[in-house]
Amino acid sequence: MKNMYKQSLGYFRKNLLNVLVLGLLTFLTSFMYFFVEASIDKNLAWLSTKGSLSKDEKALLAALNSNKILASSFLIFLLAITCFVFFMFYKKILI
């Protein structure tokens, strides 16, 4: 097991750019989702404090709900892309 860790660490050092791209892809995927989700939640909390909503606020509420679904689907698709890139990266290691 120790030899496997040593070999993986050596490969990562040789391919530092690949490792940085994988890390950046993973970080940006999560950051994008949580940034959008936090701003949507903040606006939803603001709308929930109001007693009655105007026509524009109802449209904003509908848009926020659809944006929440859109953010979730983007997270799933970007995670799938990230998993594919990781698979291709590790497939290259194992060969």
Automatic annotation (TrEMBL):
<keyword id="KW-0812">Transmembrane</keyword>
<keyword id="KW-0472">Membrane</keyword>
<feature type="transmembrane region" description="Helical">
    <location>
        <begin position="69"/>
        <end position="90"/>
    </location>
</feature>
<keyword id="KW-1133">Transmembrane helix</keyword>
<protein>
    <recommendedName>
        <fullName>ABC transporter permease</fullName>
    </recommendedName>
</protein>
<feature type="transmembrane region" description="Helical">
    <location>
        <begin position="16"/>
        <end position="36"/>
    </location>
</feature>
